[in-house]
Amino acid sequence: MKRNWDPTIPALIAAIVMLVGTVAATGGIVPGQWLAEIGSDPRSIRLDLRLAETHGQSRLTTDVATAELDGFDASTFSRTGAPLRLVWKHDVGSFVLEGKGGRRPGGNVHFEPNPAFAERWRALGFATPREIDLLRMVLHNVRLADAERLHELGYGGVDVDTFIRFESEPDAMKWLEEMNALGLRLELDELFRLRSHGVNMADVRALQVAGARFDVDGLIRLSSHGIDATYVKGVIDAGVDNNDLDGIVRLHAHGVPSDYVARVRATGFSDVDVDDLIRLHDQGVDSDYVKGLVESQLPRMTLDDIVRLHAHGVPADYARAIVAIGSRRRNTDDVIRLHNHGVSADFARSLAQAGRQDLTVDDVIRASTRGPESLGGR
Question: I need a labelling partner for 249 at 20 to 30 A (CA). Which of 91, 101, 267, 341 fits?
C-alpha cells in the first residue's frame, strides 16, 4: 500500500518504535516539539518530531509533502519569527504543529485523533482502536478507503496489528483482489505467508489457468522448491494429475523435465505414473528408447523390462530384430540372453528372412556361434 506522502524516503522504523513506546509509557501523546527544514525537493520538508516522556524524548524524522500540510506557505515558513500553524492531516487524525518560521522553523506539536475515523472503523466491524492504536495507524498511513474496501471483500473483525501489516505490504490490496478474482479466498495471514515466502502473483495466476488447484501451503511448497508455473503446467499438460502436488515436487526434485514426461507418455507405453517416470529418468532411459521398445512389440513388456534391457545395453532396434524370429514367443529374458551371447541384430534378421522363426534361444545361439549349418535339418 503506497503512502500518500513521499514513498521514496520512508520514516525511520526505529523512530516509530520509540514513538509508540512513548505512548505506551505515558498513556497518551503528550505535547512535544518539532523542527523542520526545506528538503532537497522544495515540494517537501524534513520534519523532526520530538515527544516528551517521563524518562526523556522519543523522536520521529520523516519527509512530508508540503501539499499535505494545511497552512503551509513557503515564504512564511522561512521568515524568522513568523507565526506558524500547520496541520498534517491523515484519515486517522492530525499532527498540529505550532511555532515560528526561520532557517530552522519549529515549535510545539500534538496529535488530534479524528472521531469520525474511529466511528466509521467500528461501523465496519473492525476491532475498536485505542488511542495508542490511532497513533500507530497514522504513522503507518492507514487509510479509511482501504478499510472500506476490505469490508466490501468480506473481511471483518480485523485487528489493528493485522491491518497495519496489511497497509505496510506493497500492493497488498491488489494481491487480495486478484486472489479473490481467481477464486482463492485467503485470510490476511495467509496472504502475508505467501508474500513472505516469495510466491509470485503471476505464478499463482498461471497455475490457476493451468488447472492446478493448490492451497496456500501447496503454493508455498512449490515456491520453496523453486518450481514455477511453467513447469507445473508442462507436467499437467503431459498427464500428471493437477492435484498431485507430491508427484510434481518429486518429479522436479529428480530433475525430470516436463517435456520428458510428455515424450514418455506419448510413446504409447501404458499406465506410466510418477514413480515410473522418476525411475526411467534416474536410470537414464530416454523417451526415444521407450518408444523404440514399444514399437518392437516385445510381448508383455513391463517397466522392469525396459529398465533391465537398458541396463544390459540392449538397443531398441535389437529387441525388434529378436521379436521377428520368435513372434509372440519371445520375452525380455530371451532378448537379454541373446544379446549377452553376442547374437547380432543382423544375424537375427537373416534368420527371419530365411523363415526360421521356429528356433529356440539355444538354437539361435548355436547357429550364431557355429553357423546356420549347425542346425541341420531343424
Answer: 267
Residue 174, in any domain of the structure: yes
Output the nine-digit C-alpha cell for 282.
534416474
Domain boundary among 167, 188, 209: 188
The reply to whether 246 falls in a domain is no
The residue-averaged pLDDT of 103-122 equals 91
How many domains in the chain?
Answer: 2
pLDDT class of 164 with cuts at 50, 70, 90: very high
In this structure, are 181 and 313 located in the same domain?
no
Instruction: Assign 44 a pLDDT band (cuts: 50, 70, 90).
Output: very high
Looking at 188, 204, 233, which one is the last position of a domain?
Answer: 188
Same domain as 168, residue 42: yes
Rg (CA), the chain: 38
**pLDDT (tens digit, 9 = 90+) per residue, 47-81?**
998 866 544 556 778 889 999 999 999 999 999 99
Phi, psi of 208 (to 5 degrees): -65, -45
Indicate the helix (H) or strand (E) that contains 294: helix 287-296
What is the pTM assigned to this prediction? 0.72
Residue type for position 141: N
Phi and psi at residue 65, to the nearest 5°: -65, 135
Tell me, what DSSP letter sits at residue 245? H
The 10 Å Cβ neighbour count of residue 29 is: 22
Q: Hey, is 228 helix, strand or coil?
A: coil
Parent domain of 349? 303-378
Predicted confidence (pLDDT) per residue in 220-248, tens digit: 999 999 999 999 999 999 999 999 999 99
d(CA 325, CA 174): 68
Q: Is 312 left (phi over 0), alpha (psi -120 to 50) or beta?
A: alpha
Asked whether residue 44 falls in the same domain as residue 182, the answer is: yes
Could you give the CA distance from residue 86 to residue 107 in angstroms, rounded to a whole number? 11
Residue 165 belongs to a domain: yes
Q: What is the three-class DSSP state of 35?
A: strand
